[in-house]
Amino acid sequence: MRPTAARLLNILVPVKRTIDYAVKIRVNPDQKGVDLNVKHSMNPFDEIAVEEAVRLREKLKDAVKSIKVVTIGPPKSVETLRTALAMGADSGVHVEIPESAPPPEPLGVAKALRAVIERQKDGVDLVILGKQAIDDDASQTGQMLAGLMNWPQATFASKLVVDTASKEANVTREIDGGLEELKCKLPLVVTTDLRLNEPRYASLPNIMKAKKKPIEKLSPSDLGIDLTPRIETLKVTEPPKRVGGGKVESVDELIAKLKEAGITAVKA
Amino acid sequence: MLASRYISHRLASRQLLRRAHSAALPKLNSVDADDIAHFSKFLPSSAILSTLPPASTTSSELSPFNNDWMNKYHGKSTTVLRPRTAQEVSEIVKYCNERGIGIVPQGGNTGLVGGGVPLQDEVILSLGNMNKVRSFDPVSGILVADAGCILESLSEYLSPHHHIVPLDLGAKGSCQIGGNVSTNAGGLRLLRYGSLHGSVLGLEVVLPDGTILNQLSTLRKDNTGYDLKQLFIGAEGTLGIVTGVSILAAPAPQSSNNVILALPKFDNVLPLFVEAKKQLSEILSAFEFFDREVYELAVKHGQGRALNEEDVAGAECFVLVETSGGKREHDEEKLNGLLESLMESDTPLINTGVLSQSPSQFSQLWAIREGLTEAVSKEGKAYKYDISVPLAKFKEVVDTTREHIRSKGLLHDDAVKHVVGYGHVGDGNLHLNVVAANYTPEIEAALEPFVYELVASYKGSISAEHGIGAMKVHALQYSKSAESIEWMKRIKKLFDPRGIMNPGKVLE
User: Fold this and answer.
1) Which end of chain A has less Cβ packing within 10 Å, N or C?
2) pLDDT tens digit string along A9-32?
3) Hey, are the CB atoms on A204 and B358 less than 8 Å from each other?
4) Which of B155, B358, B363, B368 is the best mutation test for A, with the most CBs of A within 10 A?
5) Hey, are the CB atoms on A207 and B355 less than 8 Å from each other?
């Protein structure tokens, strides 16, 4: 990895276009997938990642040289990049795949990201990703990328403090037992958890500026990667429907209903 | 014989009117244990909530029925009945008419003028148990539902059929369609879908003598005689009880967008509205205004997600614009065109704005506007004046009221904390809210009739959409002529000679 110019940060934020989390998911009749003809938007954890990069620049000012966002997806994914640019990113990279292509898998995405990183003349010091995408909930891409790049990783971050002078970062992670603090050397992969920040609205002047920011278009073959899926989805079903409860009018009725359900009294 | 009965009836009604001037209610009887016994013959015990035997409800359990949403109006009813069918409603009403017991029909009890709670101990007839959708035709979009269906649940019912209810308001999680119809509710979508006088196709109403008037039509067009349903729409339960509604649902928009615009001064709202109507034309579906002070209250009380600090700087007021249309790209092109022209103009009407980027942000922006009412109620006790005045006068009305309160020495933290305005500017409807630390006669005397006289001076309406209820009975004269009021009273007498139906509301 080429070292970057001394003490300046180049941040890469991969983002994914997913079904919006407010949408009600419907399984397709063929049980191979879900209805995709619904509203999409940026994966909420990726919004948090973009917001964190923008906040780092607000805190470190000129020490952050560039914030680049990248997405791997069909033509419509470019809108997700525009939203990220409207939030404050500088430029974007769209690795475009055909509309009909199957969704890329985490390993494929991680390899594509590695290829994108290696193309960056100024190098990349910090990659901030969402901890998982709300469509597959895989939570693998960040970790796989760190492995491929042989970089340290700090996942499920709820706090990120970067020291450009020492090229280190202090990351607080959310774990089952509470919070864990790590000190990591840059270059570093960080994945965001919910409590890291609250993403800003895109305001009109920034939305207009975003229209003029550059987006580089690439294809998987430009990056020399193959995104053919290695996993076959056998079946997709909805979870079993919850049956409603019922109200009873009296204690006697309650006891009768319990007996009906096969629950017997405990012998004293 | 008939003539003498008629004469004595007329004498009695004149006496009633005379008494009505001094006391708010006609002479009615209170519910007693015999009445409960009678109701028990055709209602299950779960449908009778009463502090009278043999029922055993406590008066605190009756409290959510006896007190309105703002906790400003307090009834003293001993009995709440919750019938399940129009037939049961009819039997209750017939009996109460014979016994001379007053009835207050109650839906979601979200009304803001005290129309849904008793003035004294009238029986509360709650429609909450009548909550089934009766039918829906996805081709015509005609929905027939029980009056007790909650508005939001109707939205959820229609959603998979790609239709929407033609009205929407902040109280949607609690208000019922029967109540909406009885109050001719307006709300956030009136700009686009019109009023209930247009979208309601038919009603099933129980009249004060117990007759079930079934006019539940599923026909879009039906010009056969006098359109009686129009009397009940907006009658606030004083002419009869709505038990079923047939309404024309609208096709759900394929694409919705919203944006909150920050304006440097209020004077820009009117030209902004003209520009928005011109450029957005048929896709404009809501145009809402709120002033800076009420926005800060919403943020303080956690309504929706606050805008960024720099977007709010220097803004005197805000406008929320919503578009709904059939094709996303078409709508976005129109909306972006409008926003660009506003930002790049030589004399910009706006400082900046926030455009929603996803359905969740769309909901968050709406939550700010819809949460204003709740924020005001959390901040203190609200005196609400829902008025129609010329759009250009909105700020003047708010400022004049604030100055008047200040001149009475009542503008401080222990009396009136805030005087704010927000509303459906696209419909010319302002919600003037005076937020006080407590409801006091002093503040009320300072506000009324001052606000009504102010509205009358603009030839406006003292109640754009909230209705008259108990609150504005004495103010009706500011917006309607004496002749109009006289004819309203004649119609009331015709339908409800004994005066049992929501007594003391709307008319004196």
Assistant:
1) C
2) 999 999 999 998 878 888 988 988
3) no
4) B358
5) yes
What gap in Å lies between CA A258 and CA A253, rounded to an integer?
9
**Of residues B305, B343, B357, nearest to A202 (C-beta):** B357
Give A249's contacts in chain B (Cβ within 8 Å).
46
Secondary structure letter of residue A195 according to DSSP: G
Q: Is residue B488 part of a domain?
A: no
Q: Is residue B36 part of a domain?
A: yes
Q: Which runs of consecutive H residues, i.e. helices, occur in A2-105? A: 44-60, 78-87
CB proximity A204 to B under 8 Å: yes
Q: Is the ipTM of this complex over 0.85?
A: no
User: Is the same domain home to B308 and B401?
Assistant: no
pTM of the prediction?
A: 0.81
Q: Decide which of B234, B251, B268 is a domain's last residue.
A: B251
Using an 8 Å CB-CB cutoff, list chain B residues near A202.
Answer: 354-355, 357
Question: B353 and chain A: CB distance < 8 Å anywhere?
Answer: yes
Look at chain B and report how many structural domains it folds into.
Answer: 4
Domain boundary (B353, B372, B391) is at B372
Cβ of B335 under 8 Å from any chain A Cβ?
no
Q: Are A82 and A172 in contact (CB under 8 A)?
A: no
Mind listing the pLDDT tens digit for each residue in A42-89? 999 999 999 999 999 999 998 999 999 999 999 999 999 999 999 999
Q: CATH code at B368?
A: 3.30.70.2190
Q: Is residue B34 part of a domain?
A: yes
> Domain span at residue B314?
255-372
Decide if A201 and B307 are in contact by the 8 Å CB cutoff.
yes
CA nearest to B193, candidates B175, B169, B227, B224? B169
Give the whole-angstrom CA distance, residue B25 versus residue B503. 6
From the list B46, B305, B311, which residue is nearest A249 (CB)?
B46
**Alpha carbon of A83 to those of A19, A72, A204, B333: distances in Å?**
15, 15, 11, 16
Residue B108 lies in a domain: yes
Q: Are residues B355 and B411 in the same domain?
A: no
